[in-house]
Structures are given as C-alpha cells and as structure tokens.
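Cont'd.
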Amino acid sequence: MNDAKPQLGYIGLGIMGAPMAKNLLDAGHPMTVWNRTAAKAQPLIDAGATLADSPADVLTKGASIVFINVTDTPDVEAVLFGERGLASAAVAGTVIVDHSTISPDATRSFAERLAKQGVDFIDAPVSGGDTGAKNGTLSIMAGGRREALERVLPLLNIVGGKVAHLGAPGSGQACKACNQVAVVTALIGVCEALALAKQSGLDLDQVLEVVGGGAGASWQLSNLGPKIATADHAPGFMIDLVLKDLNIVLDTAKRQGLPLDAAAHVTSLFQQIAEQGGGRLGTQAIAKAVEAAGGFRFA
Amino acid sequence: MNDAKPQLGYIGLGIMGAPMAKNLLDAGHPMTVWNRTAAKAQPLIDAGATLADSPADVLTKGASIVFINVTDTPDVEAVLFGERGLASAAVAGTVIVDHSTISPDATRSFAERLAKQGVDFIDAPVSGGDTGAKNGTLSIMAGGRREALERVLPLLNIVGGKVAHLGAPGSGQACKACNQVAVVTALIGVCEALALAKQSGLDLDQVLEVVGGGAGASWQLSNLGPKIATADHAPGFMIDLVLKDLNIVLDTAKRQGLPLDAAAHVTSLFQQIAEQGGGRLGTQAIAKAVEAAGGFRFA
C-alpha cells in the first residue's frame, strides 16, 4: 500500500449516492463512477471523477474500494453478480461497501460468495436523509469483518457523522430494519395523535409543542408533525422506499417467528397510499390513510 | 382580594399530588388538604398544611383555589358532586384546578355544572411523571376560561415548567389524550424494533444508540428502551393508569368517528398484560406481550 489515497469506485448516484460521492471526491479521493442512467454521473465527472461503462469497469479502471448506493436487493445483486458485475473483475483485497438498504439475509449470502474470491462486502446502510448525505452527518450502521471496516473507516467518517459496527455481515442491515420499525410506528402515532387533536378542535401547533416537550417527544413528531398538520406531503423520504424497507423488515421478522403487528399495520397503510398513486409522496402522507378512515382532512 | 397569598386546597395526595402540593406549600401558600386515605396527608400536615375531613371542608376551612389530583373520572365526580363534595360548599369565585387525567367530555359537563354556581373548573392534566412532579418541571395542558386560568397561572408555574392553554374546558384533557397516543405508539415501536434486534443477534445497547441518533429517536426509546432491553419492568408510569387513559382516548375517538387502529392495538396489549396480573408494572412491560407473541425473552 502506498501513501496515495486509494482509488475509489462509486456505483449509484441517486439522491443519496450523488452527494455522498461528492463528499468523498471533495476530500481528494480519485474516483471512478458508474450509474445505470449515465447522465446522472455528469456532475461528478465535471467535478473530476472518471466514468466507467460497467460496474466491472470501475475495478479495471483501478478502484480498490467500491461503494454501492442503489435501491433494492436485486439492484445490488445485479451490480455484484450480473453481467460485467463487480464480482467478475474484483481481485483479492477489494472492499465493497454497500450503502443501500437491502435484505440482511441476502447481504450475508453476498458476503459469503465474495469472501470466496478474497473480497470483503460491508453492509453500511445509512440514516439521516438527503440532508445528512449533503452535510456528511449520516448515521452509518455497518456489518462486516472488522479489519475490512477499519480500512474504509476514514472514508465512512467523511460521509457520516457516526459509524456503528454492529457485527458480522448483515448486522448493519438488521440494525437498519430495527431503525425503520421505530421510525414508522412513531410516525403513525403522530398521525393518530394529530387526528384526535384535529377532531377535538385543538390548535395543532400548540399540541405539537406540548406533546413534543414530554414523553411523547420524537424525531417524527418534531420533523413530520408540522407537515402532517398542514398536509404538506412532499418528500423527504418516499413512501415507495419505506415500503421496500418494511417488506424487508416483515420478511426478516417472519423468518424469526416475530409478528411485529404494529409495523405490519403501518406497512398496510403505506401500501394503501402507494396503491392510490401516492408512492412518491413523503412518508408523512400516511396521514391520508388516517384521514380516510376518520372522514376528515387535516388541511 | 388582599395582598396575602390565597389559601389553597389540595385533594389527592398520591404519587403525583403529594410532591406537587409540597411544592406549593414550600412556596409559602397556606394549604388545607384532604385525601381518601388520611394517612397519606401526614407528610403535608407535618410540613404545615391543615387537614380537612371532606372535600367540602377544604372550602369551609378557607380555601379559594382547590387542586384535585385523583385517578379517574368517577373519582373527580365524587370529589366535586358526591356527599360533602366541593360543589356543596363552593362559593362564586372559587377556582377548581383538576390535574387528574380524565374524560374530556365529562370535564366539559363538570365545568358547565360548576359554572352555574359561578365556580371555574380548569382541566390541567400533566405530563412528566413523578420526577417532573418532584422537580416542578411538569408540562401542564390546561383548558378553561382565560380569566380563571390567569388567576391560577402563578401557582401552575410553581408545579410545572410549561403551561399551555389549549382553550375551553376539556381541551386540556383532549390534548393529554393526544399525548398518550403519541406516547404508547412510540413505545410499541421501540418494543418491536428491539424484538427484531434481539432476534437478529444484535447488541441492544448499540441499536438503541444508533437508532436514537436518527429519525427513530424518541423519548420512549431513550428512557424506556434500556429498561425493555434488560427486562426491568418497575414503574415509572403504571400499566393500569395508561389503560385508564387509553380507554378515555378510544372513547373520545369513537365519538369522533376516528378508528385510531394503532392506539387500539397497543391498548389491547396493555389489557393483556393487566389481565395477566401486570397492571402495576411500568408501561415498558408491554414488551412481555411482544415476547409472548414472538416466543423469546429480552433478558
């Protein structure tokens, strides 16, 4: 290993990937990028990154550490094991860091397959949204071999404010699943509390302030409560994405024999909003399901 | 009105009432107290309060502002309108402040009946637990006539850190109902998140820290998450009391045509724990229902 900064690869330049890649590039790391829609790579190219024509090409152009930031389990599988995927070109010692939120079980299987070629696969899903991605303040939940994680830790510290190592491959994804359960149940609670407040004729701002000052306080209440009260359903974090995450949660829980009734209930409400064409609204649009059930409108 | 501090009455010297009355007494207010179990009044008597032999006697002994801090709607009704109740002795200008958490609808009715004798009834349920009661840092959600509230505001500021005036009689109780919805739904979310974490083999302390640093953060997670993880079910706030509150919530919501499915689900779990003899455990003991459904134990 020489003193130069390692050459990085970045695959998936969406709403999260683009600003995270930019922060790594701005820190002076040479970078090769690939995105399914090549046009989305242009701002990174303009900032000095090199364009690859496939995931494998990211490696053949010299990257030794590759970040993946795509949507779902099949997307990660395609980037890894599809035609001209990373596995077809990765040499022993390569580290692949997956920031996508995908299945913990699939993650373990991907890590095992890659380990056979001496390649480390680190699951590192994040929490903190596009604002956290821009500001480099994301919480990162990492699973994987400690030695490999330590090698990429300086890079994770550039894109995140906090990195937790939960354990073996898949444990970062498992922690993200837990995170999503806490998030969505708090959210439905805020919706139901505000529905009761609305139908009781209370001033919703006042209720949010008082409830937020006590045992009912939550990130969801402070951040999404005011949007629910004013029927502002712009994302933020999209319903389609949280639905994808919740299906992972419920699959994982089912295999563990856990019912998770509250999370399942919220999932059914998100499903309802998505089926009505609201999949690209923010998660707070779950309020529309509570409105429909109660026959009222927040605003 | 003379310059002397008004003589206060205090009815209900339980886990909340006793420290709240003590804070008023310590601020130099002459006080007459009554409690169903007279022995519980002794520490206040020792500190300088006068003992009354009925709610009405609190008034005949000179109190012009009376606080009530009892458990449920029928308890408040008995203190107000029962034999030797407050209504039998209250003169025009008396203000009654009810810190109990009871039905918003019953509160409106009590206020209307008392208004006929020129007596103000202010609903002022609190949030913040026995610690908040001791430290005088409670959040107080008040409903009632503004002029009457302003008269007692200096006293409320002694027992609470924050006083919100929500509007007409009953609106303080309505706000408390909303508060409880946000509280218990966040709590079941923390339970389910930790259940998933436990069954995924994660370190629960680490999960609480990471999840608590992001969009899953809540008062319930920070304060009750560690107790759930270690199966510490000591109260805190008792299941029997939150069940009483949730029945008020669901009654109120039903009359408004609101289903509140998540709050109803949590209510059924609390009911289950209470039926198994756990009514005097802390609210975090709802984790036992999640354990039973999943066939595992947190600790």
